[in-house]
Specification:
17% strand, alpha+beta
Amino acid sequence: MKMNKKRGAVVVALTLATLLAACGNKASSNGTSTSTYNYVYSTDPDNFDYSVTSRATNSDHLANFEEPLMTTNKYGEIVPGLASSYKVTNGGKTYTYTLRKGVKWVDSQGNTYATVKPQDFITGMKHAVEAKSETLYIVQNSIVGLDDYVNGKTKDFKKVGIKVVGNNKIQYTLNEAEPFWNSKLQYGILEPVNAKFLAEKGKSYGQPKANGILYDGPYLLKNFTSKSVIEYTANPKYWNKKDVHITDVKETYNDGSNPDALYKSFQKGDFSQARVYPNLPGYKDVNKKDIVWGPQDASTYNMTFNLDRKSYNMTDKKTDKEKADTKKAVLNKDFRLAIQFAFDKTAYNAQSTGAAGATKSLRNSFIPPTFVQADGKNIGTFTQSDLHALGSEYKDMDLTDAQDGTYNKAAAKAEFAKAKKALQAEGVSFPIKLDLPEEEKQALQLNQAKSFKNSVESVLGKDNVQIDIIQAAEDKYLAGTYQAATGAQSDFDISNASGWSPDYLDPSTYLDIYKPSSGALLNTLGLTPASALTSAADKADYAAAAKAAGLDQYEKLVNQAEAITTDTNARNKAFAKAEAYLLSTGVQIPINSLGGTPSVTKVVPFTGKKSWTGAGSSRFDGTKLQAKPVTTAQFNKALKAWTAKRAEIAKEQDK
């Protein structure tokens, strides 16, 4: 799932998804309702078509409005949602889901519109294809016949492996067995759409308005006013309303210009939780016994290089030669590695968390090192070993979480010396000027950018590299970074505006996004998937940049891993090899994840849904609020119990 850096993958969303909760209809001692959740958001949703959008800033809301066939519980286990049960047959290739009876579609006022039927899932997929869904990549090569239907090789949807069985069942037939298939159901592309409503709304379907969609999930959108407020209310006809303890959600727009104000609002009882910032003056007023540090999640936020920059609306460059020289430098692997090794991620992260939490959320691999296992070992073990084998320049890289495994001044200088010699031979002049755009009102991001600039320039020398921080208004910044739809629209040399959260429980969910042929996040590298190009000149241009960066070889390795479908251990080890190669190219620099940040909260720890994939952790059903702030001791006790239960579940699943 695509995320942007204001989230934090993802810092734009200031919500603390791993801690969400709520309970009761009582009022707290300071007047704060324990049935109403109040906090902030910082990027307007721009699309409510859940079959189409891939942005977290949309999906985090839509997850509360729509219900998947299978959902998750507070331990991250996949459990029935719209489906009451399911069966797997045909050697793991066919999944048949029995729908709950009587689940209702309702409008934004809570009025019944229709009953959810199996045919609605077919309507949803047809619509996703017609609307060119940003999330087609999740299922296009999985479901029998879907790729041919998408590419126009067949116009008969009956040839696609989705069909109604009996009166109340929907069946999916896959090309290959996918043990992780149910984890894909957390995304809107596999959720139902009512055909009658879709036809009635026409082009206005999916607009970010309360009446733009129908609802079958735990909440209804009550109000959305751009750059002002987003409000939900509980769906009175939700099938599992007994598990909805928070009856109202109110998120107020916050531009990030005054982070200290979050805690002040929490103190007054206006907010249910708040990030706190150890580096800011207001931290002295925070009750230190109430600070909680959430665990790292599966999201990864990174720096990305623009490998084929075409847009220069945000730049300090004055000449075409400066532009050309920067592009040559960015396409030089040793230059990219020099930047990575010169980047003090601990200092960068400390701008948000202070010294106490500077390393708590650091990540050094794109795939979290504990995401999946092979031969009883975490995938990160294999990735690190494979990376070390690729060259002496990688021998000191440590890919474990919560420490800076890439900051190495000596390695940075050695890599830069190699790059400078090669680039000077090409006629490149120094210093190389790298444009790093940031939103002008985001104080935290600006401080992080300044930290990055300081560490790179101090290690490599300002006469060699200059980081030009380009401050821009929100709309301009987003258009050239997070919301850029193509590589040509990506307006930067290096950017920290993006991140990724897994779509399903398989390493391919991370690695597919950088495939030159079809990658969903290629735009963050300044590229466009070959499958989306029509011009021969554009295809040749992007292919040349991808090849120069090594992404053509990378795609071969990913494809080899994906071809292994019957041996999970071998598959995961092959993915580790592919990721090691990706890390060796330096086209993206993993920085951190969500979690590992300090906050205060009245959200009862670990009562909400947990999902390693999709937007499930953004749901409010199941969560509970308490009248008083959660103490550090309370949180740590809950974390210990939650972790032990997850370990117990994992042990049972391995039997």
